[in-house]
Specification:
The protein has 23 helices and 16 strands. The chain has about 625 residues and is an alpha/beta fold. It starts with 7 loop residues before the first helix and ends in a 34-residue tail after the last helix.
Length: about 625
């Protein structure tokens, strides 16, 4: 019998082979374990990184990510979800950060019990919102995508943050690069707050001056301008890593009914829509728009079903948007709490019909449990299939991964206020204001105002309770002024007294304000206050600046008679400062009207000077 002898070299090689075999067995065992594939802790309901995944090669665009929605992270998360939870991923619920603990607890209950997909934040404060975001994310089984309806930036909803100009003011710009830069900065502020989706831009062509819901929220009445400016805003946000959701498909610009309170009826057919309303949306689709919001409007020539809003219309959502326009991005409903949908459809029923129509995401519901129940009933009846729900759920997860939620981190609270008020934001606002101020009247070359030693100047702020930023800026440009202010609701006694005081001045610089810093559809001036503005316009010595919605020029009879007339679009500080500088020739007037106001002032009007005025005698 011979003894088998192995030298040390052979032994070492055999030992290495044995280790490799053992490792292979372990790996096979691990890969076969469903429990170890789970990417969250059942006890904590908290997401953790999946360790054994190949590196995620982030597609260059969200559309590309949606077209190939199968990744290791998407599949591993999807496999942990029950059928009900897959429906819930298609739901975005509302949240506020200023309503107190009871309200916050109700939001938390929806997150924990139903596993909803995301949140849309409304009013509150940045620190409070960031804390709630961290709290809600920690409690969520799947990372939540956080959204906001912030057409003018987070300052539209939150205190202590930056608000950018209305789209009507942006419509006055010749340089769309400013809009792109604004979009890029909005994206940075969204990301700093842990948010992922902005329901903007408004791509509606507003050609109806009586529109109660779009109006100054639109870039204007020209489809080409609306398209290029919407594109600049969209690309700025998406280049910054935020999903842009354009609205309100197929076009809400020519309505005289607010879909928050009723269902607008659009009488136009496909020829009209193709020639006007659809154009901006088509251009955004061509350039990779991530999300599209569908409006609540009844369009009988596209879908004759009685009282069906476009949100619930299969011919409009699937037939027009998906098939004919070939849109590959995510489709969101407008808020499902609006009367435009709830007037004729019950909660639950409406959400099921919206998914049947082809929408991917249900936004702001009346009842999450009723919606989930109704969708399950639709599946049972064969109106929907679980495969369709699963496909949409995976697309949403793919979007979440593209937005970085596969590597979710809590929102840092340190320096949050400073980060949300950066110097670049202030500079962007200043540049927009200086380029948007629109000069409509300059009779007898009233402007630039050349101040002489003997000239007496009064400033009047109508709609103010104290001296305004415009008046303070005028003081910096010339100290030869007296300042007055009067309420929008002023009575006859007050206006007569002020008129008597103003008659002795050589020049009167008039500033017209609405009820808030944001533009308005109705300024709410009393009959006497309106008459005072008319007297000033006819006085042959007034320069009037409107710090509000351009359409509200119609609320002031004879304003076209004023020696000087400017539109500054809204009352935020930089607009007030820029208007004063235009009057005194420190910056040029470059803006053009984005809409037609009346027979006196049409789209494209604006006295343009490509060099600053030269102030002085």
């Amino acid at each position: 019998m011979h003894r088998l002898t192995i030298d040390k070299t052979q032994y070492s090689k055999l030992y290495q082979v044995w280790l490799l075999l053992l490792l292979a067995v372990c790996l096979i065992s691990c890969e076969g374990s469903d429990a170890r594939q789970k990417s969250y802790s059942e006890e904590q309901r908290q997401f953790f990184p999946v360790e054994r995944t190949a590196a995620y090669n982030r597609p260059s665009s969200l559309i590309a990510a949606l077209q190939d929605s199968s990744t290791y992270w998407v599949d591993s998360v999807f496999n942990t979800l029950t059928p009900d939870e897959r429906i819930a991923q298609l739901i975005i619920i509302e949240a506020f950060s200023d309503k107190g603990q009871k309200y916050d607890a109700d939001v938390m209950r929806l997150i924990q019990k139903y596993k909803v997909g995301g949140i849309i934040f409304f009013q509150g404060g940045p620190v409070r919102q960031a804390r709630l975001t961290n709290k809600y994310q920690a409690a969520s089984k799947v990372p939540l995508w956080i959204s906001m309806d912030a057409e003018t930036g987070v300052g539209m909803r939150l205190d202590s943050t930056v608000e950018y100009p209305s789209q009507q003011m942006l419509g006055a710009l010749a340089d769309n690069e400013l809009i792109y830069r604004m979009g890029l900065e909005v994206a940075q502020e969204f990301k700093r707050l842990g948010m992922h989706i902005n329901f903007a831009p408004v791509a509606d062509v507003n050609n109806n001056p009586k529109n109660p819901i779009i109006s100054y929220r639109s870039f204007g009445e020209d489809k080409y301008d609306v398209a290029t400016k919407s594109l600049a805003y969209m690309q700025g946000m998406q280049d910054g890593g935020i999903m842009a959701v354009a609205k309100h498909f197929p076009g809400h610009g020519d309505t005289d009914v607010d879909s928050h309170y009723d269902l607008p009826v659009i009488p136009f057919g496909r020829d009209r829509l193709d020639s006007l309303e659809l154009y901006p949306f088509q251009e955004l689709i061509k350039h990779g728009l991530g999300g599209m919001m569908v409006a609540h409007m009844h369009i009988p020539q596209l879908d004759s079903t009685t009282n069906v809003p476009s949100t619930l219309s299969q011919p409009i959502v699937t037939g027009l948007l998906k098939k004919q326009l070939k849109y590959k991005g995510l489709i969101f409903t407008d808020a499902m709490v609006m009367k435009g949908v709830t007037k004729y459809f019950e909660p639950g029923e409406a959400e099921a019909k919206a998914l049947i129509a082809g929408n991917d995401v249900l936004e702001r519901l009346n009842s999450v449990p009723k919606a989930i129940k109704a969708v399950k009933e639709a599946i049972a009846k064969g109106d929907l299939t679980q495969d369709e729900i699963d496909r949409r759920c995976k697309r949403i997860l793919a979007a979440k991964q593209w937005l970085g939620l596969d590597k979710y981190k809590p929102v840092p609270l340190d320096n949050l206020y400073e980060d949300l008020n950066p110097p670049i934001a202030d500079l962007i606002n200043k540049n927009i204001a200086e380029n948007a101020i629109t000069l409509l009247n300059n009779k007898k070359k009233m402007l630039p105002l050349r101040v002489t030693p003997r000239m007496s100047i009064a400033t009047v702020s109508v709609g103010a309770t104290r001296v305004t930023a415009f008046q303070r800026q005028v003081k910096q440009l010339t100290d030869n002024t007296d300042d007055f202010f009067i309420s929008r609701k002023a009575n006859s006694k007050e206006t007569k007294k002020l008129w008597k005081q103003l008659k002795k001045y050589d020049v009167v610089l008039v500033a017209l304000y609405g009820p808030s810093i944001r533009p308005s559809n109705k300024l709410g001036y009393s009959e006497d206050a309106t008459k005072l503005v008319q007297q000033l316009a006819k006085s042959n010595k007034a320069v009037i600046t409107l710090f509000n919605n351009t359409y509200t020029l119609n609320q002031f009879p004879a304003i076209e008679d004023s020696r000087g007339l400017l539109v500054a679009y809204q009352g935020y500080f930089h607009a007030q400062a820029a208007a004063a500088e235009v009057i005194f020739g420190k910056v040029p007037a470059r803006g053009k009207l984005a809409v037609t106001v009346n027979k006196h002032y049409a789209f494209g009007d604006g006295i343009y000077l490509n060099q600053p005025f030269i102030a002085g005698p």
